[in-house]
Amino acid sequence: MTDKYDVIVAGGGPAGMMAAGTAARTGARVLLVEKNSRLGRKLGITGKGRCNVTNHCTVQEVIANTPSNGKFLYGALSRFTPQDTERFLEERNVALKVERGNRVFPVSDKAKDIVNALESFVRSGGVQVREDRVAELLLGNGCVCGVRLEQMGEIEAESVILACGGMSYPGTGSTGDGYRLARQAGHTIQPIRPSLVPLTVKEKDCTQMQGLSLRNIAVKLEDTQKKKVIFEDFGELLFTHFGLSGPVVLSASSHIRQMEPGRYRLWIDLKPGLTPEQLDARLLRDFEKNINKDFVNSLGALLPRKLIPVAVRRSQIAPDTKCNMVTHEQRRQFGAMLKAFPVTIEGFRPIAEAIVTSGGVTVKEVDPRTMESQKTAGLYFAGELLDVDAYTGGFNLQIAFSTGRLAGESAGRHVRAKEE
Question: Quick one: which of 192, 287, 363, 377 is 20 to 30 A from 396 by CA?
């Protein structure tokens, strides 16, 4: 180890590893500081361990799927596109596949293959890796001069890249260190809130279905204040002790920009493969088969067991009503409820349960051409620390790779310019 480097990178996640490996390939002496004993800890659990590493789409599509300051990313994404990410990984022997929604995964379905490829990129470039924590930046005359580490003490550097992540999954090291360091350098931090996070709901009957997973349902998220559907999707949903989770719910959460209890309503189509007319015909057939049974006992072939008592209660049809006594109008209304099962959103789950943090270092104070601070020369930002967050689908990791790449290139150029 030395007590002076050209570039110090704080954070060993996807953005930090990309930044460190890239800076090293400019000829810079690079130190990567990570508080965990291993790199890419959060990346290793992404996508339930499968890692949706990017999206097979255009730069414009990534921006369109980034509701918070997407245009700020144009320069970074243009210099390192989703296709560049795919090539980067394939060149490091990670075979990739494209799934629904152009989501890109490793063929192995193992996130550790992505972590290993990035770690190899870091170490093969000669980057020094230190398990430590950046306590503060060393600043002077409007420039960054290095960092003070908790264990190693002061380390000088010409450039510092902050890639500390946000505040989601704090057990993996994302504890908000980067916000504190950015504030020290005079930066404004936009309010932090969860994104891609489970949702709490008002209706108590949802908690009665705890553990029920519905794999092929459609959802619509309505902003009742604006009387507008703001999101639609198809996929998997999970009922929990607090409300809702699962892929379609996490996606829906990222479209809620102004959470207010009761403002948003999720409509669940429990039978998206059937039109209302087809569903009514199916109900009629089931009732005819069970003509002398109670209504509550006739739904086993149509609905999951945990859903039946809730659906019956919401139907307002007495459970012991014989099937041959259910009227046409009652049957029609019951079918309509199954096609639009309403759930009122009360709030987000805690940020610690979020996949992504929304908010962060305001992009107005960062040069989009370089990722350099406009407050402190030689200081750069990358990844989730910035006030940019995208919808689910691999977009957030692409942002990490692109901003990390640009920050690493820029920090390396900064060092060479000072040497000249």
Answer: 377
> Residue with structure tokens 């596109």?
81
**Cα dist. 42→53, 111, 265 in Å?**
13, 10, 31
From CA 68, how far away is CA 389, in angstroms rounded?
A: 6
Q: Helices 14-24 and 111-124: crossing angle, nearest 10°?
A: 30
The residues near 274 (Cβ < 8 Å, ≥ 6 apart) are 282
Tokens of 147: 């960092």
State phi, psi for 278 to the nearest 5 degrees: -65, -40
Across-strand partners of 195? 356
> Six-digit token pair at 57?
């789409």
Tell me what the mean pLDDT of segment 178-187 comes to: 97
pLDDT of residue 169: 67
Domains of the chain: 4-193+357-419 (3.50.50.60), 198-348 (no CATH)
287-300 as b/e, with b when 16 or more CB fall inside 10 Å? beebeebebbebbe
Scanning 125-246, the segments in alpha helix (DSSP H) are: 177-184
Per 3-state DSSP, the chain is made up of helix, strand and coil in percentages (nearest 5) of: 35, 30, 35
Q: Are 143 and 376 in contact (CB under 8 A)?
A: yes
Closest Cα partner for 67 from 213, 302, 304, 230?
230
Coil, strand or helix: which one is 345?
strand
Burial annotation 12-38 (CB, 10 A radius, 16+ → b, else e): bbbbbbbbbbbbbbbebbbbbbbbbee
Mean pLDDT, the chain, integer: 94
CA dihedral for 40, 199, 306, 332, sign (positive or negative) = negative
CA 415-400-223 angle, to 5 degrees, is: 140
- Alpha-helical segments (H) within 261-327: 276-289, 308-315
Q: Quick count: other Cβ atoms within 10 Å of Cβ 98?
A: 15
Rounded to an integer, what distance in angstroms lies between the CA atom of residue 206 and that of residue 220?
Answer: 17
pTM value > 0.85: yes
Residue 128 burial by Cβ neighbours in a 10 Å radius (0-12, 13-18, 19+): middle
